[in-house]
Amino acid sequence: MSASSAKTPQVLDPEQVLQGLHPLMMKGSLLLSAAITLQYVGQWRVMAWVFAANAFRILLNVLLSRVFVRWLPPWVMEWTRLAINVSLLSAIGVGVGWTLLLWSYVPFSMFWLYGMNGSGGARALAYMGVMDAAALLSGCDPREPLAFSVLAALSFLMTEKRAELLQQSLEHIISQREQLARARGELRVLHERAFEQEKFSSLGMMAAGVAHEINNPMAFVTSNVNLLFKDLQQQPVLPEPLKEYVDEVLPATLDGIKRVNAIVSDLRRFARGDPEVYSEYDLDAELKAALRIAQGQLGHVRVELELGEVGGVVGRSQQLVQVLVNMLVNAGQAMAPGGVVRLSSHREGDAGVRVEIRDTGTGMTPEVLRHLFEPFFTTKPPGMGTGLGLAVAHSIITGQGGRIEVESAPGQGTCFTLYLPRVARRCASGAHTGGGVTSAAA
Ligand code: ADP
After folding, report:
1. Is 105 helix (H, G, I), strand (E, B) or coil?
2. pTM for the model
């Protein structure tokens, strides 16, 4: 549903209703005026007078609705229209007598006096009051104004009721349309989610396959290179070219191998979850451990630790440390020297705990936030990031029945909040479903 079509007016606007009735009003008015005039055929002077009064009335009405409408506010328009019609019709009545055809103009006029809550009711009363007063003062039989006033009141009330019913059905249609728009929106979100889940479950399967294929050859590459390194180290005398291997080439190769193994193990964990068993651990102690591990990446910033003495938590502590280290390293990389990273733990009611990792770094754009938990999404230069850290973190935290929320804005730092149940629920991990992301200042 387009944005403009949703802007249907919620209430019928009397002026709009009148605009719609205008052609009919003009035709009816002309017809009645002609009938009122023609009844005086033979009495030519009277007929000329009535014709002139009616023509003048119609001219003023046309001028009012075609020309003056641009300058006058709607309520002034309506009262002026009423004043013109009621005064000229009363003048005809007083001048040449109150005929039935003249009276029939009163209920006819009531059809377009709409809007009991606006000035419609007041105008109807004024219309009838002026006509009746003029008629009675000019000696008209009181039964005529009485009969036509009752008819006019009924016409007005029926128009009013009909408009009210129309209003109700319009509101009903609008509310149905809004419900439909909401349902369509929800359906679109569900469809997008289903699409994402499908994408990530295929990615997960692919990652598991790739990791498995790499894992076996990497096992003997690791072992052979390690063996070679140890053997060469144990040699008492080495030729010069081999010395360089022992001092530089092989340690660098082993570093690279370690990195590949870490990526493979992350991939496997992302795809299938970790076999680590559930146990009770002290959350605050794990926070300290994570800080120790990440310390090397946080040398250039100030680290603040606020432990909420949250006590024991049941879950997978090593996995939690992995998540925290990844987030602390990311925070360190996002901050220039002098930045502050604050790691804190809090109780979250009786059944949960909350861990916050807040930094004063670069923050993230809404675009980065949208892709944050996607595997292989990274903004870091090649060799610096794999884009798996947060995908794995998400998989781990949701796998233990928790959730991650992020608040971030460019230039205003980032805050990752981990919510964990005190006793982890065993949820299927590995399926990526996206995290709670807020693009606000941290
Ligand atoms: P990697 O660190 O390998 O890039 P991650 O999944 O850990 O992979 O992070 C994905 C991306 O999220 C990062 O490349 C970075 O752009 C962004 N990011 C994560 N944490 C932060 C942070 N604290 N501040 C700014 N950007 C961050």
Report:
1. helix
2. 0.47
| pLDDT tens column, 111-161 | 777 665 567 888 889 999 999 999 999 999 999 999 999 999 998 888 888
What residues does CATH 3.30.565.10 cover in the chain? 275-442
- Sequential DSSP letters for 111-173: TT---TTTTHHHHHHHHHHHHHHHHHHTT--THHHHHHHHHHHHHHHHHHHHHHHHHHHHHHH
Rounded to the nearest 5 degrees, what angle is found at the Cα of 187, between the Cα atoms of 183 and 193? Answer: 145
* Of residues 93, 100, 155, 99, the one with CA closest to residue 124: 155
Contact between 315 and 281 under an 8 Å Cβ cutoff? The reply is yes
Tens of pLDDT, residue by residue over 309-349, are 988 999 988 889 889 989 999 999 999 999 999 999 999 98
Question: According to the CATH classification, is domain 275-442 in 3.30.565.10?
Answer: yes
Task: For ligand 1, atom 12, name the residue with the nearest CA.
Answer: 372
Residue found under tokens 């606000």: 440
Distance (Å) from CA 337 to ligand 1 centroid: 18
* Nearest atom, ligand 1, residue 379 CA: 14
SS3 27: helix
Token pair, residue 57, equals 């009335």
